[in-house]
## 1
Amino acid sequence: MSDTTLAHGAHAPHKDYEGAKTGMWIFLFTELLLFGGLFLVYSVYRTLYTHDFHLAAGHLNVPLGVTNTFVLLTSSLTMVLSVTALQKGDRQSALNTLGWTLFLAGLFLVIKFFEWSAKIEHGLYPGSPVLKSLPAGEGLFYGLYFVMTGLHGFHVIVGMILLSVIAFQVKSGRVHQGDFVKLENAGLYWHLVDLVWIFLLPLFYLTN
Amino acid sequence: MHDNTHAHGDGRTAEHAPQPYGLFIKVWAALMLLTCITVGASVNWPGAVGTAVAMAVTPVKASLVLLFFMHLKWEPPVFKIMFLTAVGLMAVFFGLSFFDYLYR
């Protein structure tokens, strides 16, 4: 019994910083291909229904989309500042900037909520009678709009949960200057969420 | 592009010294400015010019996030190779799909 324990190295916690980060990047590639598939569907349908896509995009709220871009870009800044602060051993600053990241993530979702509500109030939701009466391309545009911003919004929620858990671990000292890869990996996830939105903005809001 | 500023980390190990806060604030300012340029072009010159500006600026914004915020600039070559492989794979998917849709 004691031999197996030793063989598994239970008494010597094994840390592999580079391995942890490599694993996170490989996961991010699967995310890239997940969104990539949707971007491909978007590109093909936009090529086939160029006119309909331009008409449909004209109904999206550009100021709200741009505001949300500023919000997410700023949250990405506070995220990277949090990782940097913890690397430098400044735990309080790391927690403060992490708090700002969470606040901005929440703000993004609130803005998204009002945007979606307005669309749904105007009868623009997948499978709605209004959409069915519009040309096929406009239906496709709104279908992709809800699926892609919805999947992105889901990632924002997951990111918020992840960052909250890590924030508690930073606060309790489990994640610290000498072992910060969890915070760094959560940050990588958060930047990916920002990265996807960087592409969603021109594709949906600025297609007009 | 990234040979002159290798003050921190030699690019061979995934562990690298923290960067100054100011660098990230500059990158953020550039991202905000590039967003304003894209939106401005799209509002003032809707259509071909707006789309062209968006297609030129968006990859630059993505690269800034990847290189600086995601630390790819300071990672060992294997991370960069993995990333380019994933993006290359996606480019193949796009290329083959469009070849099919446009010339069938």
## 2
Amino acid sequence: MSFLLTMGNAAAQGVLWSIMTLGVYLTFRLLNFADMTVDGSFATGGAVAAVAVNGGMNPLLALLLSLLAGIACGAVTGFLNTKLKIPALLAGILTMIALYSINIRILGGPNVSLVNVRTVFSAVPGSPMGSTFLVGALTAALMVALMYWFFGTEVGSSIRATGDNEYMVRAFGVNTNTMVMIGLMISNGLVALSGGLIAENQGYGDANMGIGTIVIGLASLIIGEVLFGNRFNFVYKLCSVIVGSILYRMIIGFVLFLGLESSDLKLLTAIVVAVALSVPVIVKKFPGKAAAVNTVEKSEDAGADASK
Amino acid sequence: MLEIKHIYKTFNPGTVNEKRALSNLGLSLDSGDFVTVIGGNGAGKSTMLNLIAGVYACDNVAGSSIVLDGTDVTKEPEYRRARFMGRVFQDPMRGTAAGMEIQENLAMAYRRGKRRGLRWGITRQEKEIFHEKLKVLGLGLENRMSSKVGLLSGGQRQALTLLMATLRKPKLLLLDEHTAALDPKTAKNILSLTHEIVTRDSLTALMVTHNMRDAIRYGNRLIMMNEGSIIFDVSGEEKKKLAVEDLLKKFEEASGAELANDRMLLA
């Protein structure tokens, strides 16, 4: 396979994965909730779509079903956290591990292949890469638009504020538990939708397809943030999430092209995240440079996040 | 306006850390009362405010109740009670969302006690209202409405929190040592701003303070707490005539201990 084709395919895949990253962005950045449900709900989305499409359902409707399944997954984590007071991290892990069994139940086995069935991708004329791009870009654009709208509304603002300062939000009459619940449901809905798209795209649903999703999401998120910086408005932030996801896939594609095994990818992803997260620490070791960078950022935009 | 009866609060009941913070507390406020609250560390001042606000529930004792303007709120969660109350906290970080814009914070406050739906979170008309309200603070914040609150100083944030707490006229304003974390000059400014707003809007307010002079200077009523109960309650002319020495003496009389708290004496 030529280098360009590899990169093109990787980028197209990245667009599909970016829907998942939007969900991770919602919980990790907006809601400040480290949600581990993602590894489970991504596979749930894939399993639901695969089984539904195989059963003869309209592939678009199957994706809607994935979305709903993801919303339900988020609701479970939300219930464990807000009603049963289980810490966020553990609540997510519990749902994730429970979903592993549930996903195998949905699939009726470890995986389901889609052979000779219509998917949202086969419905679009053109090359596989082109149709992947088209479907992915349309979905991503729609989700970015919906998120931009929703997080500008009263409820959306309250969710953002809950992630920022829950004491303040409660003092102004918002039920923070409800906000956490809604945030988790939307986030996992997006993640499962992405899983559904991936399953239809690769032609199978697999109980193991979700492993490492959360780390991939974080890696994509951080790549986007490093490139775009933190001084743009909400639309730019959402777009940085999409671009980060595409770049992540391209980096992976590049490394595979160089001859690494696909089983090495998890290690590579972990390294990417660890390196990206350690950048602030490394920068601190060189205070001269860091100070210079900081002053430039501050003078450029007084509205930059103070916590940066 | 506010009617508190037989309130008890025990933290960590049944453990070695058990602590009775409030004991058979009763308090009744009239509409328009501006009450200052003083007392030593651990007297239960903040606990009283937090119980009124609903941060935690009071002990389940027969006959205990918190009634606000005719509504029994004893069993209501914090976010439900917020429709009645404006609050300013000791920690300037606590009352505002640092990562959100000044106007977004105000928009959150503007919807206190209102249903939140899928309407846009902030309207143009509201921005104009916020602009006018910020002007009154005299801090120039009206020209930085889309700046993140995290960029403001502690004093500015506290002034903003005060504005947010009173943006929709609250039935009760709770001020929990809201100037304690500020430098003396800023603290003075915030206090006079508090006085201004409370008088202008004729609010009912409870203000906890460590500074006895402030407690005497501001408000029309003063209560002193010790070990979870009110030991001294004075208002009107009698309160105006109080001196710091009187308060110290009162405290010794009532509690049999000295109000030897460096923070209070130095303040």
